[in-house]
Amino acid sequence: MLALNFTQKLLKDMKATPVELDSADPLFSWHANILQLKRKYIIFVNDSSRLCLILDGIRTSQLDKLQEKFKTDLKQYLLFEGLRNSVVEQYFLEAGEISIGKTNDKSVLGTLNEMSLYCNNIEFHHNFDLSAWLNMKIYKPINYEKPIHVFKKIIKDRYS
What we know:
Helices cover 44% and strands 19% of the residues. It is of the alpha/beta class.
């Protein structure tokens, strides 16, 4: 199961009804919130690696579009970061269907909020540029490593 844990603000904006997500694998669990810069974005942070993905073009109540765009953009971003297509496909095959829940990890929320603060007054040309920039920062919950390196290591160890 691909678990998307929304903040109350995002649940309300998407008019989503959460389900109870008790035991999701952290590799397939993402926390999400609204990121308000010059326009509205949605920021996703992976629970195990703190990998970040920024999406735009989602309006209020477009939950189906958000889910589809998340999967599509995450695949494209992982390929952009140099992961092999076969590894990315295996990740999504194992992940399965998306389930929407409430945020349940204060540490991940802290990282998500930290990333949101870094985004203030940042200029970028594409969402992948901002995501890549955030994924090259170091964060305490992952032993001061870079999220992209942690995610690549986890996914390569799992599927290679």
